[in-house]
Amino acid sequence: MRITSGGPAPEDDPGPDLSDPEFFGTGDPHPVWTRLRAHDPVHRQCPVGGKPEFWAVTRYAEVSRVLARHGEFTAARGNILTTLGQSDIAGGKMLAVTDPPLQKRLKEPLVPHLARQAVREFEPALRELSRRLLSAGARQDTWDFAAQAAFYPIAIGGLLLGIPEDSWNRLKHFTYAAVAESDPDYAGQGASRSAVLNRAHSEIFLHFHSEVTRPGRADADDLIGVLLRAAPDGEPLSREEVILNAYSLLIGATVTTSHAASGGLLALLENPGEYARWLETGDTTALVEEILRWTSPANHALRHTTSQVRLDDTDVGAGEPVTAWLGSANRDERVFPDPFRFSVDRYPNRHIAFGVGAHRCIGAHMARLALTVLFEEIARNFEQFELAGEPRHLHSTFIAGIKNLPVRTVLRPEGAGLRDLRPLGETTEEAL
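RESULT FIELD:
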């Protein structure tokens, strides 16, 4: 998905189909969102090609309301556009599609293990994974940063969920297919979107079913072990609930970490003055917050109204689908001065890249730490990064992602040790 500052689309432009993944892969939604924020902030997306209609909310205030008020806007009927028009079988069983108070029994066992202080223990392991990601740049001066970064969330999933490294290639392929089923790199030859999704979900569920049913798995010191041992309200989670929530955690990591990393690096390369300012100040904390605002990797969230509501000046009927566009909200001129300027020391920075309310990303602290460590290692090990070709963007309504980012790099003397590390993409498993 392109990120531009070209101003709003013409008022007589009919606009794209916001449910079309190809538009987000090859087009630029920001001029469209800029126009909608100004003139039609609660926009009815009319049916296109037999797909159901839905409401598109683009301003920060209304997006925050849709995400925060689960009593008015439920996630239980599905939380992304690919579920629109279907019943979500995970509703009430998976954290992302379960509203309070039912959500409590799924969330409480995980919260202590993903709290800010709890994830700090992973910093040495994250630093080693970051160095392995960057080791490709120690072996060759031109390489694909995004292709390497695609393994980063799977590796983090390995830390959190006990995913063995020989499963990384396979799970990377299917987690990306699950969120970008129309992308040419992940869709099967001639396969329908539903067929690609069904296979992706089946493969991931089979992996976690195998893990969950393995003897002694409940004793493991990872989040699958935590879920298997959990007994909120004295009632253990079902095997299905454990599998669904392991899946949700893996997808959540895939959504945020790799695409924020690639999009953030691209922003630095396109804004060399900001790149130099970051290196001078060394303030990676502020940089990561601006990267999250700028990239907004989780592009939208779907909700359904529980009763008739009024959003801005528009009445939305009961049971209607509403999409909250986080990528637009994080460019809202009413909240972010000069929103199309990438600023490494933006303050305040009240972005909502992780969502709002009960469904705010449970892995936010881990994602922030992973990005902070990665960019610290970039600064420490490389004297220079520059673009070596055109980025290629993911075809997905859900993920604002980059799948190829060719770069040329110059290694610092301090980075020589990267040559001794095995890249993240090198596993003993055959790639698909």
